[in-house]
Amino acid sequence: MSRGPDLFGSYAPGTSVLHRAPLWAKALGLVAVSLAVVLAPSWRVPAVLTGLLVLAGSAAGIRARQWWHGLAPALPVLVLLGVYHVLGAGPAAAADVLLTIVVFLVLTRVLMHTTPLSALLDGVVWLCGPVRLVGADPGRIGLAVSLMLRSIPFVVGSAADLRDAVHARGLRPHPVRLVTPAVISTVAYAQRTGQALAARGFD
Questions:
Q1: In sequence order, which residues have a C-beta less than 8 Å from that of residue 97 and are 6 or more positions away?
Q2: Which of 42, 78, 112, 136 is the most buried (most CB within 10 A)?
Q3: Which DSSP symbol is given to 69?
Q4: Is the pLDDT of residue 178 over 70?
Q5: 145-172 per-position pLDDT tens digit
Q6: Do the Cβ atoms of 117 and 12 come closer than 8 Å?
Q7: What is the DSSP letter of 115?
Protein backbone atom coordinates (compact mmCIF):
# COMPACT_ATOMS: atom_id res chain seq x y z
CA MET A 1 0.00 0.00 0.00
CA SER A 2 1.51 3.29 -1.06
CA ARG A 3 1.52 6.20 1.31
CA GLY A 4 0.12 8.58 -1.25
CA PRO A 5 1.24 12.07 -2.17
CA ASP A 6 3.09 14.11 0.40
CA LEU A 7 0.22 16.55 0.78
CA PHE A 8 1.51 18.52 3.74
CA GLY A 9 5.21 17.95 3.38
CA SER A 10 7.50 16.23 5.84
CA TYR A 11 10.42 17.36 7.94
CA ALA A 12 13.81 17.57 6.26
CA PRO A 13 16.79 18.37 8.52
CA GLY A 14 18.60 21.56 7.60
CA THR A 15 20.42 24.62 8.87
CA SER A 16 18.35 27.38 7.28
CA VAL A 17 16.98 30.31 9.25
CA LEU A 18 13.55 28.66 9.32
CA HIS A 19 15.00 25.38 10.54
CA ARG A 20 16.76 27.17 13.40
CA ALA A 21 13.81 29.37 14.34
CA PRO A 22 12.10 28.35 17.61
CA LEU A 23 8.58 26.99 17.51
CA TRP A 24 7.13 30.04 19.25
CA ALA A 25 8.52 32.31 16.51
CA LYS A 26 6.95 30.11 13.83
CA ALA A 27 3.66 30.22 15.73
CA LEU A 28 3.77 34.02 15.76
CA GLY A 29 4.48 33.98 12.02
CA LEU A 30 1.51 31.68 11.47
CA VAL A 31 -0.75 34.05 13.41
CA ALA A 32 0.59 37.07 11.51
CA VAL A 33 0.01 35.45 8.11
CA SER A 34 -3.48 34.35 9.14
CA LEU A 35 -4.43 37.84 10.31
CA ALA A 36 -2.98 39.42 7.17
CA VAL A 37 -5.03 37.11 4.95
CA VAL A 38 -8.24 37.54 6.95
CA LEU A 39 -7.93 41.32 7.05
CA ALA A 40 -6.64 41.67 3.49
CA PRO A 41 -8.56 44.23 1.41
CA SER A 42 -7.88 42.37 -1.86
CA TRP A 43 -6.36 39.26 -3.42
CA ARG A 44 -3.01 41.03 -3.78
CA VAL A 45 -2.10 40.44 -0.12
CA PRO A 46 -2.36 36.63 -0.22
CA ALA A 47 -0.62 36.71 -3.61
CA VAL A 48 2.36 38.58 -2.14
CA LEU A 49 2.39 36.34 0.94
CA THR A 50 2.37 33.23 -1.24
CA GLY A 51 5.35 34.53 -3.20
CA LEU A 52 7.27 35.37 -0.02
CA LEU A 53 6.53 31.98 1.53
CA VAL A 54 7.61 30.16 -1.64
CA LEU A 55 10.89 32.10 -1.59
CA ALA A 56 11.41 31.34 2.11
CA GLY A 57 10.55 27.67 1.62
CA SER A 58 12.83 27.37 -1.38
CA ALA A 59 15.66 28.91 0.65
CA ALA A 60 14.97 26.24 3.29
CA GLY A 61 15.40 23.48 0.72
CA ILE A 62 11.91 22.85 -0.70
CA ARG A 63 12.33 21.90 -4.35
CA ALA A 64 10.01 22.57 -7.28
CA ARG A 65 8.88 18.94 -7.36
CA GLN A 66 7.87 19.11 -3.70
CA TRP A 67 5.86 22.28 -4.28
CA TRP A 68 4.10 20.53 -7.15
CA HIS A 69 3.35 17.41 -5.09
CA GLY A 70 1.74 19.59 -2.44
CA LEU A 71 -0.42 21.64 -4.80
CA ALA A 72 -1.30 19.16 -7.55
CA PRO A 73 -3.85 17.13 -5.50
CA ALA A 74 -5.72 20.36 -4.71
CA LEU A 75 -5.92 21.54 -8.33
CA PRO A 76 -9.30 19.91 -9.19
CA VAL A 77 -10.92 21.53 -6.15
CA LEU A 78 -9.26 24.86 -6.88
CA VAL A 79 -10.49 24.79 -10.47
CA LEU A 80 -14.07 24.06 -9.38
CA LEU A 81 -13.96 26.80 -6.75
CA GLY A 82 -12.46 29.21 -9.26
CA VAL A 83 -15.21 28.61 -11.82
CA TYR A 84 -17.90 28.89 -9.16
CA HIS A 85 -16.65 32.20 -7.77
CA VAL A 86 -15.89 33.69 -11.19
CA LEU A 87 -19.47 33.04 -12.26
CA GLY A 88 -20.96 34.10 -8.93
CA ALA A 89 -18.85 37.02 -7.78
CA GLY A 90 -16.28 37.84 -10.44
CA PRO A 91 -12.58 37.23 -11.06
CA ALA A 92 -11.35 39.34 -8.12
CA ALA A 93 -13.39 37.37 -5.59
CA ALA A 94 -12.29 34.10 -7.18
CA ALA A 95 -8.64 35.13 -6.98
CA ASP A 96 -9.07 36.10 -3.32
CA VAL A 97 -10.59 32.71 -2.40
CA LEU A 98 -8.09 30.64 -4.37
CA LEU A 99 -5.01 32.54 -3.19
CA THR A 100 -6.22 32.32 0.41
CA ILE A 101 -6.31 28.53 0.09
CA VAL A 102 -2.96 28.42 -1.70
CA VAL A 103 -1.19 30.62 0.86
CA PHE A 104 -2.19 28.24 3.67
CA LEU A 105 -1.17 25.18 1.65
CA VAL A 106 2.23 26.77 1.08
CA LEU A 107 2.50 27.87 4.70
CA THR A 108 1.72 24.34 5.90
CA ARG A 109 4.40 22.85 3.67
CA VAL A 110 7.02 25.34 4.86
CA LEU A 111 6.12 24.65 8.50
CA MET A 112 6.17 20.86 8.09
CA HIS A 113 9.42 20.95 6.10
CA THR A 114 11.32 22.97 8.71
CA THR A 115 9.83 21.61 11.95
CA PRO A 116 9.95 18.04 13.30
CA LEU A 117 6.49 16.54 13.69
CA SER A 118 7.23 15.70 17.32
CA ALA A 119 7.96 19.38 18.03
CA LEU A 120 4.74 20.45 16.30
CA LEU A 121 2.69 17.96 18.31
CA ASP A 122 4.35 19.10 21.53
CA GLY A 123 3.33 22.63 20.60
CA VAL A 124 -0.26 21.54 19.97
CA VAL A 125 -0.38 19.76 23.33
CA TRP A 126 1.00 22.83 25.12
CA LEU A 127 -1.43 25.14 23.32
CA CYS A 128 -4.34 22.89 24.31
CA GLY A 129 -3.26 22.85 27.97
CA PRO A 130 -6.26 24.93 29.16
CA VAL A 131 -8.68 22.17 28.07
CA ARG A 132 -7.66 20.34 31.26
CA LEU A 133 -9.94 22.77 33.07
CA VAL A 134 -12.93 21.07 31.44
CA GLY A 135 -11.63 17.55 31.96
CA ALA A 136 -10.13 16.98 28.51
CA ASP A 137 -6.68 15.55 27.83
CA PRO A 138 -4.36 17.70 25.65
CA GLY A 139 -2.31 14.60 24.86
CA ARG A 140 -5.28 13.00 23.16
CA ILE A 141 -5.77 16.10 21.04
CA GLY A 142 -2.15 15.87 19.95
CA LEU A 143 -2.65 12.20 19.16
CA ALA A 144 -5.72 13.03 17.06
CA VAL A 145 -3.76 15.61 15.06
CA SER A 146 -0.96 13.10 14.52
CA LEU A 147 -3.40 10.45 13.29
CA MET A 148 -5.00 12.94 10.91
CA LEU A 149 -1.67 13.93 9.39
CA ARG A 150 -0.71 10.28 8.91
CA SER A 151 -4.09 9.03 7.71
CA ILE A 152 -4.87 11.47 4.90
CA PRO A 153 -1.86 10.45 2.75
CA PHE A 154 -2.69 6.78 3.38
CA VAL A 155 -6.29 7.21 2.22
CA VAL A 156 -5.20 9.10 -0.90
CA GLY A 157 -2.57 6.44 -1.57
CA SER A 158 -5.22 3.73 -1.23
CA ALA A 159 -7.31 5.35 -3.96
CA ALA A 160 -4.22 5.57 -6.19
CA ASP A 161 -3.49 1.87 -5.61
CA LEU A 162 -7.02 0.97 -6.66
CA ARG A 163 -6.70 2.98 -9.87
CA ASP A 164 -3.37 1.30 -10.64
CA ALA A 165 -4.89 -2.15 -10.03
CA VAL A 166 -7.73 -1.41 -12.44
CA HIS A 167 -5.28 -0.13 -15.08
CA ALA A 168 -3.16 -3.26 -14.67
CA ARG A 169 -6.18 -5.34 -15.67
CA GLY A 170 -6.67 -3.33 -18.84
CA LEU A 171 -9.81 -1.62 -17.58
CA ARG A 172 -10.76 2.01 -17.35
CA PRO A 173 -11.22 3.12 -13.72
CA HIS A 174 -14.65 4.56 -13.01
CA PRO A 175 -14.79 6.90 -9.99
CA VAL A 176 -18.18 5.58 -8.85
CA ARG A 177 -17.03 1.96 -8.97
CA LEU A 178 -13.91 2.79 -6.96
CA VAL A 179 -15.91 4.25 -4.08
CA THR A 180 -16.86 0.94 -2.45
CA PRO A 181 -13.38 -0.65 -2.35
CA ALA A 182 -11.89 2.69 -1.27
CA VAL A 183 -14.34 2.92 1.63
CA ILE A 184 -13.64 -0.71 2.62
CA SER A 185 -9.90 -0.05 2.60
CA THR A 186 -10.32 3.12 4.65
CA VAL A 187 -12.55 1.42 7.23
CA ALA A 188 -10.07 -1.46 7.52
CA TYR A 189 -7.27 1.04 8.11
CA ALA A 190 -9.34 2.79 10.77
CA GLN A 191 -10.05 -0.52 12.49
CA ARG A 192 -6.38 -1.48 12.54
CA THR A 193 -5.50 1.94 13.94
CA GLY A 194 -8.20 1.61 16.62
CA GLN A 195 -6.97 -1.85 17.59
CA ALA A 196 -3.40 -0.59 17.86
CA LEU A 197 -4.52 2.28 20.08
CA ALA A 198 -6.63 -0.02 22.25
CA ALA A 199 -3.65 -2.35 22.69
CA ARG A 200 -1.70 0.62 24.04
CA GLY A 201 -4.39 1.56 26.53
CA PHE A 202 -6.28 4.23 24.57
CA ASP A 203 -10.03 3.83 24.65
A1: 81, 82, 85
A2: 112
A3: H
A4: no
A5: 777 767 766 666 666 677 777 777 776 7
A6: no
A7: S
